[in-house]
Amino acid sequence: ATMPPLLSAIANAGRHGVLVKSAVVMERLGDTDRVALDKTGTLTEGAPRLVAVHPHDGWDADEVLRLAAGAEHLSEHPLAGAVVAGARDRGIAVPTAADFRAEPGRGVAATVDGRRVEATRPERSRDSGHTAVVVAVDGTEVGVLEIADRLRPDAAAAVGALRHLTGSEPVLLTGDNERAAARVAAEVGIGDVRAGLLPPDKVAAVRDGRTMALGDGVNDAPALAAAHCGVAMGRAGADLTLRAADVVVVRDELAAVPKVVDLSRRARRLVK
Ligand code: ADP
Ligand code: MG
């Protein structure tokens, strides 16, 4: 006997390195009419690097970075990894911290050397088009860290294929600033950009229509769960995100996503 089309499609998806969690999901992938993608870790590699430290007047760059790294070393966010690695690369000993608090989509705060240190997203966009982290000590801004992440090599091709398959413009959803979002959108050719979003805003944005949401981080889990179909980039994905997703891209290639949508379309034509 021949295999049921949906089962055969699931097996095929597996060969492309994509885990489709159920037959219902396999079928649903093909009637997606809109795609929403997270920026950091989804369109970009999710391995950000610290590229510059801009201290405010009266502050030393290494001291700004040292305090920020102290607060960030307790965070699991990829940006936190960039700050801590950036400090270590400059030979800075990362101090311990207490009373750590993380606010999803916004940043972190902790007490370092008796001072309250915050590392958070900026109020306004920065000119560089990079991600900016504002560092404050005891409520006063002391500097800005500039962080860059490389685009995934297959991001533009995957976005193009998803636009073609769904017949609608993909949308970029990010908590990052507008300039940084616009820069990535231009590089991958996305015309619809929503920047400065908090996790609940991402949830609201994927409730429209039959949206497939692609994300990677812990912050993306609610949006993946709320979407018609939630797809997690697996390698960087937190357990929470993998659990919330309907589909996991195990092999970490964005280009596999349109391939699996196409497999779903083919299977649907055969399903009785
Ligand atoms: P994205 O939507 O790009 O995946 P997030 O929702 O995780 O990003 O975060 C949105 C913004 O919040 C980041 O661009 C950054 O400015 C800020 N942010 C989040 N977590 C941290 C952190 N640990 N340290 C500094 N800034 C952070
Ligand atoms: Mg992300």
From TrEMBL:
Principal location listed in the UniProt entry: membrane
Keyword Magnesium listed: yes
Subcellular location: Cell membrane
Glycosyltransferase found in the keyword field: no
Superkingdom of the source species: Bacteria
Record's keyword terms, sorted: ATP-binding, Cell membrane, Magnesium, Membrane, Metal-binding, Nucleotide-binding, Translocase, Transmembrane, Transmembrane helix
UniProt record similarity statement: Belongs to the cation transport ATPase (P-type) (TC 3.A.3) family. Type IB subfamily.
Protein name in UniProt: Heavy metal translocating P-type ATPase
Full protein stretch here: 298 to 569 of 623
